[in-house]
Amino acid sequence: MISNGRNGSVRKKKTRELRLPAIEVRQGPRRTLYSFAIDGKILSEFTTVSRVRRPEASAIKGYQRPEVLSHIAEIRDYLQTGDPMIPNAVVVAFDQRVRFEPASTGRTEGPKYTRVGSLVIPVHSDLADADRPGWIVDGQQRIAAIRAAQIESFPICVVAFITGNEQEQREQFILVNSTKPLPKGLIYELLPSTSAKLPSLLNGRRFPALLLDRLNHDPESPLCGLIRTPTVGTGFIKDNSVLKMIENSLTDGVLYRFRGDDGSMQGDTAAMLHVLHAFWRATSQVFRDAWGISPRRSRLMHGAGIVSIGFVMDAISDRYRRVGIGEVEKFRKDLEPLRDVCRWTDGYWDFGPGNQRKWNEIQNTPRDIQTLANYLLVQYKSRVWNRATDTGRAK
Q1: What SS3 string covers the chain?
Q2: Distance between CA 137 and CA 96 in Å, rounded?
Q3: Can you tell me the distance from the alpha carbon of 317 to that of 219, in angstroms, rounded to the nearest whole number?
Q4: pTM here?
Q5: CA distance 197 to 74
Q6: With 0-12 CB in 10 A as exposed, 13-18 as middle and 19+ as buried, what is 262?
Q7: d(CA 234, CA 228)
Q8: Torsions phi, psi of 163, nearest 5?
Q9: How many CA atoms does the CB half-sphere of 232 hold within 13 Å?
Q10: Alpha carbon 268 to its chain's center
Q11: What is the CA radius of gyration of the chain?
């Protein structure tokens, strides 16, 4: 194709056709999909992203959300590891400049709703983004990460449909991105059995999830079967509450002492479980009436109680730093003085002048957790730690 440049000279527009082996799949009477593979590095040569925008005094245009840089960086880092895999397909909407040509050999053996052939895509090197024949409906971050990764190429799977209607593209974007995600609890249960590099949030929860799994399934654990997960539906305690308790201790508590020298959360698993078993065994003995029942009947089994008393575990362990930790009796002895000031199942919490709360008014919110944790720690230090220190000085 020949066109005139601004200076009047004649130049040749670089145009070519990209022919990709593809499978045509017919869904129902009107819908047709095309599945193919391509190097993700070159996908941007004929696709673009239609981001959501609203020009003045006009209807909304486009349908994609802005790129999330942190998410892209995580995918990019994963792609630069030794053995990456992205099995889920990118979804692309093509306009009618793209066509499918069935294989000349005719239909191969297989279902009647499929045909093999080639998807023919025009590639114009000097087209503006908005004029390219393809729009990415789903997979924006993956494509941006592949583009940025320090790798020569990375083949990906693509599922495409052809339409000249932007409304249909937007509808498909909504349908693709409104699919209900996997429950977080199920993801956390799967984490301990994985070893691949994961996004930072999931990677940081892999080891706490392992400890939770052991607490919930080891027969000798006082929490065995009590943590509610997608596979343990009879548990009372929410898995996320136990994860928070473990993460707090791993970050700045007794479990931190057993972390590895490399700075990661992982470390001496056996020692960590020894402490956790001992503390929660003692807790179940001291607060027997509040143990093993529904959170509606006991704030000890409630998220606020689990996270808050976890800080007491760290405080008791800190007191016994010089003489060893982990024994049930030490935890039980230090928890016993708190029995009379805890209102797990009835009565009113006395948080200070003008701040009395009914036992079941404590909620699983950051503010209530902080209030309850501070109260338990103050009571512990005044009833146990300070008295023990004064006794030691007197001796």
Answers
A1: CEEECCCCCEEECCEEEEEEEEEEEEECCCEEEEEEEEEHHHHHHCEECCECECCCCCCCECCECCCCHHHHHHHHHHHCCCCCCCCCCEEEEECCCCEEEECCCCCCCCCCCEEEEEEEEEEECCCCHHHCCEEEEECHHHHHHHHHCCCCCCEEEEEEEECCCHHHHHHHHHHHHCCCCCCHHHHHHHHHHCCCCCCHHHHHHHHHHHHHHHHHHCCCCCCCCCEEECCECCCCEEHHHHHHHHHHHHHHCHHHHHECCCCCCCECHHHHHHHHHHHHHHHHHHCHHHCCCCCCCCCCCCHHHHHHHHHHHHHHHHHCHHHCCCCHHHHHHHHHHHHHHCCCCCCEEECCCCCEEEHHHCCCCHHHHHHHHHHHHHHHHHHHHHHHHHHHHHC
A2: 16
A3: 24
A4: 0.67
A5: 10
A6: exposed
A7: 6
A8: -160, 150
A9: 21
A10: 25
A11: 30
Q: What is the pLDDT along the chain (395 residues), one digit of tens a residue?
A: 333 343 444 344 567 899 999 999 999 888 899 999 999 999 989 998 865 454 555 455 565 555 568 888 889 999 998 889 999 999 999 999 999 999 976 555 678 889 999 999 999 878 888 788 998 888 888 999 999 999 999 999 999 999 877 777 667 766 666 666 667 887 888 888 777 667 777 778 889 999 999 999 999 999 999 999 988 889 999 999 999 999 999 999 999 999 876 656 677 899 999 999 999 999 999 999 999 999 999 999 999 999 999 999 999 999 887 555 678 999 999 999 999 999 999 999 999 998 999 999 999 999 999 999 999 999 999 998 777 665 554 44
In this structure, what token pair is assigned to residue 194?
């994985």
How many residues in the chain?
Answer: 395
Amino acid occupying residue 333: K
